[in-house]
Specification:
The complex is a heterodimer of chains A (about 120) and B (about 110). With about 120 residues, chain A is mainly β. Helices cover about 0% and strands about 50% of the residues of chain A. The chains are: A mainly beta (about 120), B mainly beta (about 110).
Chain lengths: ~120, ~110
Amino acid sequence: DTGVSQDPRHKITKRGQNVTFRCDPISEHNRLYWYRQTLGQGPEFLTYFQNEAQLEKSRLLSDRFSAERPKGSFSTLEIQRTEQGDSAMYLCASSPLLRVANEQFFGPGTRLTVL
Amino acid sequence: DQQVKQNSPSLSVQEGRISILNCDYTNSMFDYFLWYKKYPAEGPTFLISISSIKDKNEDGRFTVFLNKSAKHLSLHIVPSQPGDSAVYFCAARGGGSNYKLTFGKGTLLTVNP
């Protein structure tokens, strides 16, 4: 059983650089979500896709953030001109269409450190 | 404004005893509530959920209770085991076509042998 995978697991970058993260959801899961988690907080919703359509974006997702899911399978999250405040764990989750309670299955996350 | 609150940052219990984790919410539009467990360096793992029209759901050692009038839910773990030691997050689904989850800050459960 292949779960949600994320790459890379860790990323250290300098302020002002661009970074891109990849998420591979569980196959046949139509919905894909991105969350961000900082120390002492729960995951905070960033954005969500149903197939290739991006259906909702949080206010947290500034213009420097962009997410894509071009073929309705894997997704990428890009952060341009990174700032120290972007340091966080970026979590990806997926869920099938027909799960009523909308249990989302999370990947291990990508930990971003901006120096 | 935090819509899902877990007011206890940590909880310590003895192996074999009951663990009770609490969660309060403010948004009456939430239609499902979920509990996740998180170990260090891993993503959250789904444990159990409950619909807003139910007051109890049980799965093995885990039971979730919902008091809708008080906007309060709790997760009971009986009996607690050392392997249950983790951070537990309460989450709520937005309702209708709103699929995003809103999480509390989490409670660190430590089960002592």
